[in-house]
Amino acid sequence: QVQLVESGGGLVQAGGSLRLSCSASGNIFRFNAMSWYRQAPGKERELVATIFSGGSTNIEDSVKGRFTISRDNAKNTVYLQMNSLKPEDTAVYYCNRHSNVGNYWGWGQGTQVTVRS
Fold first, then answer.
1. End-to-end Cα, the chain, rounded Å
2. Which positions ≥6 away from 48 have C-beta within 8 Å?
3. Are 98 and 32 spatial neighbours (Cβ–Cβ below 8 Å)?
4. Which of 75, 83, 85, 114 is 20 to 30 A off residue 16, Cα-Cα?
5. In this structure, are residues 2 and 107 in contact, taking their beta carbons and an 8 Å threshold?
6. What local confidence, expressed as pLDDT, does residue 102 receive?
């Protein structure tokens, strides 16, 4: 079972930046598309960004132009660089394999991002 550990969250002012990291255990990380998701209070978890095993990326419209996703397969780590943060970006951020059918790995604890206006 893959274990995921997210880190890098914090409290920032609007317009600030954060870089999130997600480390995965095991040796199947490199074969999987990885995504960042977020869940704001009272809302459903939503997809934020995806990076495929070959390195191509997909960024959701809500964060396009502000967030970038990258990965380091040698370190089993995926990153989310978040710039020009807005209060509506406030959420707990999680990483997991990308899936259209819900067959995710076990969820980590997430990392809290709070953006103050």
1. 39
2. 35, 36, 37, 38, 59, 60, 62, 63, 67, 80, 93
3. yes
4. 75
5. no
6. 86
Can you read off the two tokens belonging to residue 25?
């255990």
- pLDDT tens for residues 65-112? 999 999 999 999 999 999 999 999 999 999 999 998 888 999 999 999
| Burial (CB count <10 Å: 0-12, 13-18, 19+), residue 106 | exposed
> Could you tell me which of 51, 11, 56, 48 has the C-alpha nearest to residue 33?
51
Taking residue 85's Cβ as centre, other Cβ atoms within 10 Å add up to 22
- How is the chain classified by DSSP, letter by letter? ---EEEE--EEEETT--EEEEEEE-SS-GGGS-EEEEEE-TTS--EEEEEE-TTS-EEE-TTTTTTEEEEEEGGGTEEEEEE-S--GGG-EEEEEEE--SS--PPPP---EEEEEE-
